[in-house]
Amino acid sequence: MDRTELGSTLRIWRERLRPSDVGVPAGLRRRTPGLRREEVAALAGVSVDYLTRLEQGRGPRPSDGVLSALARALRVTDAERDHLFHLAGSAPPLPGRIRSAVRPSVLRLMDRFTDLPALLLDAKSDVLAWNPMAVALLGDLSSIPPTRRNIARQAFTGTHRVEFYAEERERLDRALVSDLRRSAARYPADPGLQRLVSDLRAASADFERLWTLRELDERHGDTKRIRHPELGVLELDCNVLEVRGDDQVLLVYSAAPGTPAAEALSLLRVIGLQDVGHTSTDYARTPIQGQDITQGGR
């Protein structure tokens, strides 16, 4: 591990980003170039002290998960991500492994969803990115540790769950397990997916029951009822947009014009973003608190 070069690289890549690149308000008192350390730390889900020590060349060796999170936060290219892994003394993700790097073009697309909640997931259901409306609807995603920022883990063993109607929970659980079984067939050697399935089979009787059924659900969209603490139950359409080549999906929640849910989303854009604005103004920043994205099966 080349701590000095790793630290310098992280600092330079942080300073080359503009606040507008990641949806952070520049403010009137910004005196340093690029993003502040606390902004990158929030985007990556690490502490400011940890990032400071890394940039100063005195931090511990980052895990692969932290390196991937830093690469996403800094909006790096694939070549730069691999370089970051090499500087940390780690092997970059191999072909045949689940891709968790997020294309800048996808993040730019999410920028445009200013009035719709959107979440980006990889093939093992890790939450890679989200927008401010997702935080307003579902809660602060950064409150979930990055290692547990996974909708399957939260659905079957997590604490960030909302009450779903009984008939919906079983249906959505089946869809989520079906997605994981398909991914396991596509990525039989991916260690992260293997560990996820093994952990869930050991920890959740419901997951083990559904996993052994070997069902495959063909649905790629859904209507979900989400109970918001202030706005009540919202019935929203959930559309799934596939990111071809990366095996990632973008979940976008919407409602038909003129419906109570559409009015609630409009209200949420005003009051919800004000509530979360002091903690999160962008994606890839903050995990779910008090609401359930865990039932976002495709």
From TrEMBL:
Which part of the chain is the HTH cro/C1-type domain?
34-81
| InterPro entries for the chain | Cro/C1-type_HTH, Lambda_DNA-bd_dom_sf, MLTR_LBD
Q: Which SMART domains match?
A: HTH_XRE
* UniProt cross-references to SUPFAM superfamilies, sorted A to Z: lambda repressor-like DNA-binding domains
Alphabetical list of Gene3D superfamilies matching this protein: 3.30.450.180, lambda repressor-like DNA-binding domains
Query: In this record, what's one Pfam family?
Result: HTH_31
| Name by which UniProt lists this protein | Helix-turn-helix transcriptional regulator
- Source organism: Pseudonocardia yunnanensis
